[in-house]
């Protein structure tokens, strides 16, 4: 039942270093598009004071997340919930932080729009929405690997693709979220942090 993504093993430590700076010491973290469940187990074990709520829209992913949780998850890791970000309502009404890793480019643009709408609804004032993945950033050279990645994504599904950070930021601001920081990560990825206004 457990699925395994090598990329999750590679990027978990760099992401963890950023999460240590951003996540509160107590509260609930909503992880959107948890995929295999590897990150959910790893991060929930690193933050024992936080309730970690994984989600996904894919039934196969939900099975994998639950299998990882049962075999290796701490008590603070909840069973996964079904969440399609493009629909409302969401299965959670509030969260102190949100984490979304490698979803925006492997989904239609409507998923990004739904993510921002949902984050605006559920995040506490000042709460972070933490995104990780590849982005095109205006004024910065694009790595050849990201251009190739974008082409491969669009070949698999024309609605997918590496997103322009400016467009993502505009969508966030339209829903009351402000850009907090952009952090360079290994392998030409970025961590992008938005915050709910009022914090």
Automatic annotation (TrEMBL):
Protein name: DUF938 domain-containing protein
CDD domains, A to Z: AdoMet_MTases (cd02440)
SUPFAM superfamilies: S-adenosyl-L-methionine-dependent methyltransferases
InterPro entries (alphabetical): DUF938 (IPR010342), SAM-dependent_MTases_sf (IPR029063)
Pfam families (alphabetical): DUF938 (PF06080)
Coiled coil stretches, renumbered: none
PANTHER family noted in UniProt: UPF0585 PROTEIN CG18661
């Amino acid at each position: 039942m457990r699925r395994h993504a090598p990329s999750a093993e590679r990027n978990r430590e760099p992401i963890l270093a950023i999460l240590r700076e951003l996540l509160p010491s107590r509260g609930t973290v909503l992880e959107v598009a948890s995929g295999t469940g590897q990150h959910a187990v790893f991060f929930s074990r690193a933050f024992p004071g936080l309730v970690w709520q994984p989600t996904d829209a894919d039934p196969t992913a939900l099975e994998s997340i639950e299998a990882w949780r049962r075999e290796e998850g701490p008590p603070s890791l909840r069973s996964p919930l079904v969440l399609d970000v493009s629909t409302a309502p969401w299965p959670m009404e509030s969260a102190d932080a949100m984490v979304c890793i490698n979803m925006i480019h492997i989904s239609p643009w409507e998923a990004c729009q739904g993510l921002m709408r949902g984050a605006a609804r559920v995040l506490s004032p000042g709460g972070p929405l933490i995104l990780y993945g590849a982005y095109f950033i205006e004024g910065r050279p694009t790595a050849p690997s990201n251009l190739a990645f974008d082409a491969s994504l669009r070949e698999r599904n024309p609605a997918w693709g590496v997103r322009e950070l400016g467009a993502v930021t505009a969508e966030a601001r339209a829903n009351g979220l402000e850009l907090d920081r952009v952090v360079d990560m290994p392998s030409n990825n970025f961590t992008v942090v938005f915050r709910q206004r009022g914090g």
